[in-house]
């Protein structure tokens, strides 16, 4: 079971609280976590990653255990603290501009 924190606009779309729990199969990677998230909340499909390419949307960032995972391979295992549910996976809406 992993914990995921969504930005406000995605929480509103999915009609969930700030943090949700998901059952994710091993190995726990960003890909498997997002697959589980989109399976549990179909309205989020296409909001975090492009439906056709599977690539992260430009203004979405991923953080875990104080690390920015946004530019890491989505198939690299997430930190053990995230996989165990001790720490959440943060999905953050980035700001553009200066």
CATH topology annotation: Ubiquitin-like (UB roll)
Number of strands: 5
Shape: globular
* Residue windows where pLDDT falls under 50 for at least 5 positions: none
Give the number of domains: 1
Spatial extent as radius of gyration: 12 Å
CATH architecture: Roll
Decide which structural class fits the backbone: alpha+beta
**Secondary structure tally, helices:** 3
Walk across the major sheet and give the strand order.
Answer: 2-1-5-3-4
**Main β-sheet, in a few words?**
5 strands, mixed
Approximate strand percentage: 15-25%
**CATH homologous superfamily assignment:** Beta-grasp domain
CATH class: Alpha Beta
Q: Overall mean pLDDT score?
A: 93
Secondary structure: helix percent? 10-25%
Order of helices and strands: EHEHEEHE
Provide structural commentary.
Helices cover 22% and strands 20% of the residues. The protein is of the alpha+beta class and 98 residues long. It has a single domain, classed as Beta-grasp domain (Ubiquitin-like (UB roll)), CATH 3.10.20.30. The chain is built from three helices and five strands, in the order βαβαββαβ. A five-stranded mixed sheet has the order 2-1-5-3-4, with helices on one face.
């Amino acid at each position: 079971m992993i914990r995921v924190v969504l930005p406000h606009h995605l929480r509103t779309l999915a009609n969930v609280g700030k943090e949700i729990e998901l059952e994710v199969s091993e190995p726990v990677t960003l890909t498997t976590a997002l697959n589980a998230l989109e399976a549990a909340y179909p309205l989020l499909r296409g909001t975090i990653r492009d439906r056709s390419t599977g690539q992260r949307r430009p203004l979405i960032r991923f953080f875990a255990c104080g690390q920015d995972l946004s530019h890491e391979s989505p198939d690299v295992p997430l930190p053990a603290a995230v996989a165990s549910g001790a720490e959440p996976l943060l999905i953050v809406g980035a700001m553009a501009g200066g």
